Every structure is written in structure tokens, then in C-alpha cells.
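[#protein-structures] MJ: dropping DUF6343 family protein here for a structure pass
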Amino acid sequence: MRTGSEPSTARSPLRMRLWLSVWGMVWAVFGLVAFVATGRAGWATACGVLLLVTVTDLCVVVRHLRQGPHYQPGRDIPPYEPDRGGRSRPGR
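AK: finished. C-alpha cells for DUF6343 family protein:
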């Protein structure tokens, strides 16, 4: 929900997540190869699981980047007014 207090130059952290996923993937592959070469199966398994997590995150980020700026209003859409109707929120 837009409240109107967002900065007009706000950016999505998707590109940062993309590069962090690539960085994590490189290190996970390096660790996997190194631990397999030294015969440490437990650490190799941990690096393999980490590799799966980073590849999954990379796929999700690429999918979101390709979808484009959907559900985000442009500059010609005025901000929504904050809800001041006095409705109580659960947990407050």
C-alpha cells in the first residue's frame, strides 16, 4: 500500500539480491568442489544445500526482474490517503 511518504527515488533491492546471489553461488560452488576434493562429505553437503538455496533465490530474482514494475503506480497516480477511519487493527 502506498502512503505517500515513500521517497520518489526509491529503488528495489532486486539488483543487489541478484549480485549477492551470484556471489553466494560462486562461493558455494568453490566450497563444494574444495570439500569434495578433500573428502569432507558433511561440509560438501552443506555447501550443496547452500548452492541450491542461492540458485533458487537467483531464479526468483530473475523472474521478478523480468516481470517489470507491475503493481507499482507511476508518477501520475496520486498517493493513497492514510487510513484515519479509526478502525482497530488486530494486535494493537
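MJ: nice. The two ends are 19 Å apart (CA to CA).
AK: one more thing. Residues 30 and 83 are 51 Å apart (CA to CA).
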